[in-house]
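Contributing new complexes? Match this layout with adenosine-5'-triphosphate.
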Amino acid sequence: MTHQAAIALGQTLRVLAAAADDPAAQVTPDVVVGSHTDLDDLRRVAAGADVLTFDHEHVPTELVEKLVAEGVNVAPPPRALRHAQDKLVMRRRLAALDVPVPRHTAVKGLDNLDEIDAFAKRVGAPMVVKSVRGGYDGRGVAMAHDVAHARAIAREYLADGLPVLIEERVELRRELSALVARSPFGQGAAWPVVQTVQRDGICVQVIAPAPGLPDELAAAAQQLALRLAAQLGVVGVLAVELFETALPRKREGPPGTLLVNELAMRPHNSGHWTMDGSRTSQFEQHLRAVLDYPLGDTGAVAPVTVMANVLGAARPPSMGVDERLHHLFARMPDARVHLYGKAERPGRKLGHINFLGADPADLPHLRDRAERAAHWLSHAQWTDGGEERGR
Ligand SMILES: Nc1ncnc2c1ncn2[C@@H]1O[C@H](COP(=O)(O)OP(=O)(O)OP(=O)(O)O)[C@@H](O)[C@H]1O
Ligand SMILES: [Mg+2]
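Output block (do not edit by hand):
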């Protein structure tokens, strides 16, 4: 998707891919097949490039720092990127910047498991146990109903040799995401704040803009994301995943306040709606930012956009994707489909579909159609039996 945007900007990309059939490698002529944890592979992909950037956060910080020392222009730079790589580093920095975050503590090793008991005494159960690095799509995040459960999960995560983060389970009203971009020149641009809907720790739907979000709260979320982008020195797209809390929190004020869950410094799932729903997609904006171009207009092109992820079915259907697409377009000509060229595996994000709506009052219907379309593409089954009702 970044490559699609690069074509229009007259830029060429070189991609580091783990295998020749990786999604990005399928569409890019200039591919280095190698590992993102191997310094020589990273050097090969960076050689002669104007800028090196990322579509995930798993390149080890030490290697990114080495590349910078060797003169590679890395965006975002490692001093920013580390806050998207390590949840403990991020929690501590945000707390130091006076940004509201869930109450948390760190367990450094198997000798410190008693810290969980102390935390539970202060904050209570249930708790959330997180591995500090390497998680995605809810992997490395577990809900613990009591101290014994939390200790058991922490013991398992600590086997990786990394610290574990324990935090309060926040009573969520819903989850939001504030997506912004920042250029080295210092320009910032914010898209409308969106609502993200998760199922089993995986994002399944995004609604842009977040329905019913008071203007002041939306503006506060955008300002927070722009401030963080500047304070952390982010270059490129920054997604700030937010919890809107359900209950008044003594320290944080009235209901409807926001806590930061985590940061991503790359095009993010909560920004996929921008490919069809905004004047500038997050992929183009990320390129503009890392190239230090002026940023694009982040306005929405429709009153409401719904994005639904296409998640691999438990058992991939026998009907081919080509035929599924054919049927989808016959029923829903307005569906904007983006497939990633990935092999179908249960729960894997295989693509996404955007729907634009002319009237926010139609949101329930739009969400229903997006859900049905995504389910059809992964399962070859219409959840409503097959009739397209009342378009
Ligand atoms: N402290 C918490 N209280 C309540 N729910 C939480 C908490 N932390 C995480 N969650 C839930 O788990 C989901 C995944 O958590 P988190 O974003 O930390 O993990 P991740 O695997 O890194 O996510 P991603 O899918 O964004 O890569 C959140 O979107 C939220 O639904
Ligand atoms: Mg997350």
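Reviewers usually confirm one structural detail per submission. For this one: Residues 241, 261-262 surround magnesium ion (ligand 2) (CB under 6 Å).
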